[in-house]
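Progress report, Aim 2. The chain analyzed during this reporting quarter is listed below.
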Amino acid sequence: MNINRLAAIARKETLHVLRDWRSLTLALAIPLVLILLYGYALTLDLRLVPTVVWDQSRSAASRELLELYAGSPYFSIRDYHEGYDDLQRDLDSGKAMVALVIPGDFAGKVHSGKPVAIQVIGDGSDANTSRLALNYATAIAAIYARNIAAEQMELKGRGELKQPVEMVQRSWYNPDLRSQTVLIPGIIALVMVVVAAMLTSTTIAREWETGTMEQLISTPLRAPELIFGKVVPYFVIGMTDVALAVMIGKWVFDVPIVGNAGLLFALAAVFLTGILFFGLLLSIRLKSQVLANQMAIITGFMPTLLLSGFVFAIENMPLPLQFLTYIFPARYFIAILRGIYLKGIGLEILWIDALFLAIYALLMMVAANRAFAFKLE
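Predicted structure tokens for the chain:
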């Protein structure tokens, strides 16, 4: 491999990138747009779920219970109704996602120490939100029941109610359980896949479509020199995008890197190399910019979004899909990102994931090199 010829191709591709300011702007703007869009729009947190109430008791006890719901960050009481028809109308229209029904004998049973049931109705058309809302509603009702039991114990002169078992909860690595803390590392992987595959999936195909491949074939260039020269400028752009995404994650979403930032960028470079050569392989095989770009989205973006553990836990997928995830490098890179970002761990734990990334990058290099032929079909 001649370094001078490789550098000449790299300069040629760099000049093309700089002249095509639209593509360069798009490549640098995509991280900003994606990380802001997904960071704000894609959230697993439950906040201020619209709630309607049918309070048949209309007592001090029921108002005390409703104050707990209204004071929580999870529920926003929008209206009070007088029947199931009104509740159903609001649930049907989407005005509310949760309905609370307090029976008429609520206060009497509470003060007499008898069990009483309140009804919580969730909009099951949004299964995830409904499930979380029902769980939070149950937890708030349990807090109210415990407070009532403690008050009754004090009134009877038995002292303070003591729990035989007290559970102390701690959430390591994400104490506030913020969904952004978990999602931002995954978004960085998504940004890298989109940008890298999009940029290199068209580079060789463009040479074929514009007819400049004949000029390259007539030169003494060898396949590795052309391929590596094509990748160099896009590698620089990709690593710039990683730096931008990391800075946005820290400054906008307050998600700093807990572990070794140098290790993160080093492994990001390995992952980026594999994705760049994957995009180049598509460009070589398909020889069409449009088709190569579409295939890059289908085979890069979609698996990263759906089959990497970014949004959906791999353990909850059907067994065949769990096995399928092993062939996608984003699975390993997201594990690395979360390990370094959130836990601060290093290669002593992440070495297997790093090894798979290195193997993938090497395979893509070899495949792209062998796929390229200096001849016209």
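Residues 308 and 331 are 4 Å apart (CA to CA). The chain has a mean pLDDT of 83. These observations will guide the mutagenesis work planned for the next reporting period.
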